[in-house]
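To: structure subgroup
Subject: Chain for Friday's discussion

All,

I'm putting the inputs and outputs inline so they're searchable in the archive.
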Amino acid sequence: MAGAQEGDAEDETINRSRGASTSHGMFSRLNLTVECPTEFGQTVHVSGSSFLAGVSNPSLLVEMVTTPEEYPLWRTPQPIIVQRNQPHKYIYSLFEGGKFKKWEESSARVIKCDEPSVHQRDEFVGHDTDISDYVNPDRQHSGLDTNPKPSSSTSLPREHVEPPPDAVLYLVCFHLPLTLKKDWKGTWQAEWNESLIAKTEDSVSTRIPTHWVGTVASNDGKEFTEADEKAITQVLRPMNCTPIFVPLSIIRGSYLGYCKQILWPAFHNVDVLDLASCRWNPHSTDPTLTWDQQNTVEWWEAFKTLNTTFADHMMRMLGEDSEGGHRNNVMWVHDYHLMLLPKLLSDREKDATHHRQTSIIFFLHIPFPTSQIFRALAHGEELLQGVLSADIVGFHAFDHARHFLNAGKRLLGLSYQSIKGGLIGVEYDRRTVMVVMSHVGIEPKLLKRHIARKDTEQAVKVIQKKHGNRVIMAGVDVCQKLSGVTLKLLAFERLLTEYPNYRDEVVLVQRCLRPSSRVEDEEHTSAENKQLVARIQQQFGEGVIDYTEVVGNALSAPHRLALFKCARVLVLTAVREGLNLIPLEYIFARGEPESAGVVLASEFSACSSLLNGAMRINPFDVAKTTGAFAQALAMSEAERSGRRDRDLPYISSRPSALWTYQALLDMWAMKNEASVTHIEETTSLANELTHEMTMTDFTPLDVDDMMAAYRHSKSRVILLDYGGSLLEKEGLGKYLKRNMSSVSGRKLPQPTYDAVVKLCEDKANTVFIVSGLNDKGLMNAVGAVPGLGLAANNGLAFSWPVEVASERSWEVFDYGVDWDEVKTAALPLLQKFTAHTNGANIKMRDSGLAWSYYSTDPEWGQTQAKQLHGDTVALSAYDVKVQHLRGSLEVVPKRLHKGVVVSTILRTQKERRGCNPDFVFCVGDDASDEQMFSAVYSFLAQAGDQTGSNDEMTQAEMDNIRLYTCMVGKKPTHANFYVNDPSEVAQTLSRMAGTGEKDPAAAAAAAAERQQGRGGVDGVGSSSKGSARLESFLARSLM
């Protein structure tokens, strides 16, 4: 076939077969032959815009074949399926020793085909031209990396890391987590409080020697005498605690001043102007700011003095340990009160020994502000430099870490990248500082003991007696503005107004804590809360609210857990919030045999990204919050249990000791590595060359034209993806999902369901739904539809059409994978990434496993998924692969994809019906569905291509086949057509269903058309008797 130029095409050789008419849904088989003398070990490949020619991945190029008789001619081993009368681009390349060597020296060739079968012969251009000769001059200076670098992560998890034998862990916090008091004899006594930092049972102290360091305070607020200091030091020594005695003036200036008046509001994203406006005297007629800049200077000096005092004490303690043989000490600094300590200690060590000796971890338990808010702090850079002197910087949520990284980038010009193990590395002071995101857990054993205590049982009885049969909505919050209690009360007031039936059925039990750390804030918030409570009680009765303020920073364990056991709903409406273990404790307290409760968590809280079963609310939207209240109160026990089950296993298995130890292992693993390898984004020349060869024939589906082909056809195959094609997936918001799941457990819209049912009733149709859902989920959704075939887990299991749902059976493809070995190798890595990715979880299956990040922060989840995907390369040794789907990574057999089951469906359908399908409609919405399109193309390429076989198709038969591969959404794809959304898929299926044999007009039109010579296509005949025999055979064979 001669080549010719087409119009004004830019430097492209156009080869055309005869004719130029377009045919909707028609395709051609393109057979390519190229003349290319090669050397020993060289092969010729072709890449093109058809899916079967490896358009987007040079590793999938079609390898051409030759024989001694044909050489130097190379040909495609099977035809390439291209759309009729549409341009198809392709280019040849040379491989040597199985590896890419060079492209031919030519722009992409373009061919149009208007016949069922086309043979094209070419000559390889520039056989002696090396790949560097093909690079455009402009590309030489573009910075493009033409040599793809190997992946940075080519192994499974780091080798198991053990603590150094001489390591000592110092847990350093502003205030030691204990209570000091004198007994009746005047002797000092100390006991641990409920702080997780203080826990010694089942803690990290059982694995590594641990010492606690911090300030102490007297219960009378007075300075300690020298005798007191000696006595307290002696009392605390058996508890492995070292007290630091700081003058009260420094405590007031640093803690009550700089920390609580400057850092606390700023870190909760309250800027300087807002802070100043909040200090206006509400009783004054003169709006003069009372904020005094001089106070800030004094507070900052006190803050520096406090951190310096800690650094001096730590140097002495670490020096004593070093003399005793301890060389692998770790200092873990807790929270914002000591942000300068990492740098102060590092500088002192460098001055003394010329290098850093102590490993340092800094963990922030409150939010980190946006860079715009943080840069308003007068000493922001010093605070950043102080924290970045640690080896690990930890946060409870990705939002907080992201703000920290942005602040470092904008204030200090620092860059950051992902590193092995699901972490982030920041380059600072010629070091890589690890940034981790990991939410601390609760203590299940300790909580179980508290729940079993008699005083807890007694507290439960008191609450039940007080509120009778009312459903309890509970809240435990600090009495400060940012806790959002006022917004909670407004939403509750609206609930009682709009839902009168709840006035006698519901009570809000609200406990507000008064720690006296922000006295003015607490006083103003208390007055506001009490005013609202009085207003609500006056309107709806005193029984609707039980409001109490508690002095201190925590509600006692018996009273707290008793409230949780009684409350059906826990409401958290914080405007800004960091660490809060209340919702985790609530879920644990409502574990079996208790009935499940519901957590309503503010989307501004750290726990909202951790809990998969919580209902996320925006407390500023009072109307929607009220609706969430009503939804939670009316929620069924089954849904409440389902939500609990999404979180309880994780909460119960992640104690704080594991959280602490994981951070230590991360640090030691990093130190054991010679260097930290970063993920690098590289672009290969091959990818750039093939990028231009994306499909140019991707057009909207013309349903009218397709319906004409549908009515003319007699043997149809309809292949439907489920989620995203038949059923709308949940939209992406701030989180990858806002509710329970994307599609699992959701039913099809009724019009779509009805259309599928009717399509299955037509005996000319073979209808399959091919989904990523498991078999149980797919059965619950559409398993009852008679005559519908199902394929689950992207084709791992499939079920042939049956007329009765109870008779449905499943077949599973055997890929020869030892899943016990795979899980043993993969689980440690998946668990590690799960610990560093709030909201992620592992899904175990009989034949596979998956890592889901659907509930995570979308940016962090995708970053982690990309790194995890690279870290799982070593799993390929087990004959499995890791595929990246929407919101998850799945470990599946290497040969598994939707195309396998589609090929089986097409092949079996042909065997059962005795003919090839003359109409194929295949629809999908994401990358996994591309394999379905590929399988359809491959089947049609192979059908009748065995020379001399009885299956060989004539050109007339090929002309009768109509092929419609359809992508949902206009996106890069190898489908021939697209529709905009699932609603258009539903409309298309409804129109197809309306033309089935059940429709009299359509049946008459179809019968008339079949009498016009189309009966021979299926190999059965066109007589009514033959058609009846065929339908009878199909009805029996598909049952």
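Points worth raising on Friday:
The chain has a mean pLDDT of 80.
The longest helix spans residues 293-323.

D.
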